[in-house]
Amino acid sequence: MTPVAPTDEMSSFEAVNWFFDQSARRLGINEELQELMRHPWRELTVSIPVRLDNGKVKVFTGYRVQHNGARGPYKGGIRYHPKAELDEVRALASLMTWKTAVANIPFGGAKGGVVCDPGSLSQSELNRLTRRYIQNIAHVLGATRDIPAPDLGTNAQTMAWMMDAYGQLHGYTPGIVTGKPVELGGSYGREAAPGRGLVYCLEEWASLTHFPIQGTKVVVQGFGQVGSWAARLIGDLGCIVVGISDINGGIYNPRGLNVQDVLAYSLSHGSVVGFANADAVGGTELLELPCDILIPAAVENVIRADNARRIKAKVVAEAANHPTTPAADLVLQERGIVLIPDILVNAGGVVVSYFEWAQNIQEFRWDEDRVNQELAVFMKQATQGVVETAKRDNISYREAAFSIGISRVARAIELRGFV
Ligand code: NAD
């Protein structure tokens, strides 16, 4: 394929494939194999009729995209979002393929989505929606076929409903989903895992590159499962969180925010906005605040070619999935801003999902210390691989991470002998 110059107007799937193509070309992967790795292996779109509390029936649309299963069962979260769409789900499924390969866990990549606004549905409506969605996609799921997990708008409760709906069809199968409540076979440490994994990754990267991380100022966009844990745990590295935002806006204090207090405030008020001892900042402005490390932990495509020129951080650690467009990625590179990519930084979530699945299969439980210790091992090894590859081949960390992921998937396809 002829390389095209990236733009912010690319769709999400085009953007992920732009990164894929860049690395696959450099690795010299043959065109036929590239084609097989670029496209999802299976896509399913389903209609989900749900009786609402007011007695009316509403038909929702749901997706499950299985991008690549060469290295193991398909694995990836399910998001409930009003703007969930097939192209985005494809992009996220593809990222899962490269992420599980970079983390070196025995899974392929998948993603799912339901077009809905979970905030406007009651718990019983969400329960019915979830059950019907799982019934409609159950024939492509399985603990050795495809294992969903939470993502934006879904949580441990959603996973409990999914496990129950699948169990009604196939019998008790805790390994069918990860991110479940601990009482139903969930793993200790799963909720904190993407944030904790980010901290292990940054710690290893700083040590390998001699980056003085102690005392650095951090801004976190998004204060949900990933962002709130990243903000809570990054203090362990001696970092100071100076800015935090959620969908309603942001707060900034250059002397540092007390993250536990922000969390308590956000839980009682439904947002970080209005927190005392901080200035109010807009969501867009937050990304451009003076800081050392910027952690986008909310949604995709927030760092674009135009605002990338105004980012003041020295390091961008992508906790969200594809928060940076390929055009912005080039701008950050030109400006010498270090970018540590999503498929490495936020892999902690799927690594602990792997531990949960493995514990479910063995009908055994690890304590939280063991989960965290094993997570540290996986995150540090993955970080070392990316840093070493980037240095050896004189490429960006993103290109290095994609190269490692693509090489592992290509090798698995070759060994299986199905092309
Ligand atoms: P979440 O729903 O728990 O939290 C999302 C947060 O982002 C909320 O605080 C929300 O208010 C905020 N937000 C939404 N839109 C925003 C905007 N435009 N500007 C600023 N803030 C905004 O979701 P999450 O599970 O924390 O996921 C966040 C990101 O991390 C997503 O990209 C997701 O795909 C990715 N991720 C999640 C996991 C996981 O296990 N949950 C693992 C890896 C990656």
Task: Give a verbal description of the structure.
The protein is of the alpha/beta class. It has two domains: about 40-185, Leucine Dehydrogenase, chain A, domain 1 (Rossmann fold, 3-Layer(aba) Sandwich), CATH 3.40.50; about 195-340, Rossmann fold, CATH 3.40.50.720. The protein is built from 15 helices and twelve strands. The strands form two sheets. It has a seven-stranded mixed sheet with strand order 9-8-7-6-10-11-12, sandwiched between helices. Strands 1-2-4-3-5 form a five-stranded mixed sheet. Strand 10 (about 295), helix 10 (about 305-310) and strand 11 (about 315) form a beta-alpha-beta unit. Bound molecules: nicotinamide-adenine-dinucleotide (NAD). Nicotinamide-adenine-dinucleotide binds near residues 194 and 283.
Chart the SSEs and their pairings.
Blueprint: H1 12-27, H2 31-38, E1 42-51, E2 57-68, E3 74-81, H3 86-102, E4 109-115, H4 123-137, E5 146-150, H5 156-170, H6 193-209, E6 217-221, H7 225-233, E7 240-246, E8 249-252, H8 259-269, E9 279-281, H9 283-287, E10 293-296, H10 305-308, E11 315-317, H11 326-334, E12 338-340, H12 342-345, H13 348-362, H14 368-393, H15 397-416
Parallel strand pairs: 3-4, 3-5, 6-7, 6-10, 10-11, 11-12
Antiparallel strand pairs: 1-2, 2-4, 7-8, 8-9
Helix pairs in contact: 1-3, 1-15, 3-15, 4-5, 6-7, 6-13, 6-14, 13-14, 14-15
Bound molecules: nicotinamide-adenine-dinucleotide (NAD).
Nicotinamide-adenine-dinucleotide binds at residues 150-153, 194, 221-227, 245-247, 283, 297-299, 319-321, 346, 349.
